Automatic annotation (TrEMBL):
<dbReference type="GO" id="GO:0019343">
    <property type="term" value="P:cysteine biosynthetic process via cystathionine"/>
</dbReference>
<dbReference type="InterPro" id="IPR000277">
    <property type="entry name" value="Cys/Met-Metab_PyrdxlP-dep_enz"/>
</dbReference>
<dbReference type="InterPro" id="IPR015422">
    <property type="entry name" value="PyrdxlP-dep_Trfase_small"/>
</dbReference>
<dbReference type="InterPro" id="IPR015421">
    <property type="entry name" value="PyrdxlP-dep_Trfase_major"/>
</dbReference>
<dbReference type="GO" id="GO:0004123">
    <property type="term" value="F:cystathionine gamma-lyase activity"/>
</dbReference>
<protein>
    <recommendedName>
        <fullName>homocysteine desulfhydrase</fullName>
        <ecNumber>4.4.1.2</ecNumber>
    </recommendedName>
</protein>
<dbReference type="GO" id="GO:0019346">
    <property type="term" value="P:transsulfuration"/>
</dbReference>
<dbReference type="GO" id="GO:0030170">
    <property type="term" value="F:pyridoxal phosphate binding"/>
</dbReference>
<keyword id="KW-0663">Pyridoxal phosphate</keyword>
<dbReference type="InterPro" id="IPR015424">
    <property type="entry name" value="PyrdxlP-dep_Trfase"/>
</dbReference>
<dbReference type="Pfam" id="PF01053">
    <property type="entry name" value="Cys_Met_Meta_PP"/>
</dbReference>
<comment type="similarity">
    <text>Belongs to the trans-sulfuration enzymes family.</text>
</comment>
<dbReference type="GO" id="GO:0003962">
    <property type="term" value="F:cystathionine gamma-synthase activity"/>
</dbReference>
<dbReference type="GO" id="GO:0047982">
    <property type="term" value="F:homocysteine desulfhydrase activity"/>
</dbReference>
<dbReference type="GO" id="GO:0018826">
    <property type="term" value="F:methionine gamma-lyase activity"/>
</dbReference>
<keyword id="KW-0808">Transferase</keyword>
<feature type="modified residue" description="N6-(pyridoxal phosphate)lysine">
    <location>
        <position position="191"/>
    </location>
</feature>
Amino acid sequence: MPVPHPETVAVVAGRPPHTPDQPMNTPVHLVSNYVGGGQLEYGRFGNPSWTAFEDALGELEGGRAVSFASGMAAISAVLDLVPAGGRIVAPRHSYTGTIGQLEDVAARGLAEVVFVDIADADAVREAVSGAAMLWIESPTNPALEVADLPRITADAHAAGAVVVVDNTFATPLRQRPIEAGADLVVHSVTKYLAGHSDLVMGAVVAAREEDAAALAARRTLRGGIPSPLDAFLALRGLRTLHVRLDRAEANARELVARLGGHPALEVRYPGFGAIVSIVVRGGAEAADAFVAATRLWVHATSLGGVESTLERRRRWAAEPATIPAGLVRLSVGIEHIDDLADDLLAALV
Ligand SMILES: *Cc1c(COP(=O)(O)O)cnc(C)c1O
């Protein structure tokens, strides 16, 4: 059989073998203790419901996946790989939780952290000299800056740094960082991969087997394991990722076209995916009035679900001050485009 397309992988990967009476889906394995002497032994070491999800995500990203309790648990397992005192270079507009963890390890003297504009490849090249790790997020949350992955990855490798990409916004259907040379890919599974706003989970995909083993060992040691039910639900969500993303992205493109030129705002869109940021010209107050006036769009912080949500990011104190106060991040869902556009335009007047 030729190599299947990603849309096929999303549907077929991580299933039990095609033999009589095998279940079509790996069931939820609610278990803490296994009969000893085998591969699993204990519920913190392994679970078949995790493995089914990991097989599917690993195949989509082109590496070996390890699942975690949350995106934040996945991020902390990766940061644990930095040797004591090593330097980490990261985007100044990273996810606020990532910035929080980086500032925490720096404050405790565990690592040195340098923030850069990840879209400025020359600045990244300069900063990675002598670094242990280059952390990339692209597009960034919520500024939507796009990094030149192959170029900055090559520069980081030349400098001896490990390259990590938070691929939460793009998903493996729009960006495959391991093909671009990255060593590790991080996901908040909570968002697009699971896609239904009903669970919190994370994952790391490693290009190399030994890195996956090291991350699984960190998971066992620190205990940041996913719930078997969440892993089951995340895999069920992953089965429709391509269908959801195609529709959400088509909606996002159409919304960008319909909002473009509106006098009250400036639109930012990286050209792919289903996150759009709009900067309301009237600032924080006008943006707050706007998000309070929508009826269909839900004011909520998370993203990547089938339903459309929006949020003024600077309502959080942790959001960098370089993000405009009136910036509202839209997570475009899979509803009918006319309903989505009409609701936003009505709320803007
Ligand atoms: C939400 C998010 C995270 C954190 O993931 P959790 O599942 O909430 O712990 C990390 N990176 C990005 C880009 C995110 O959007």
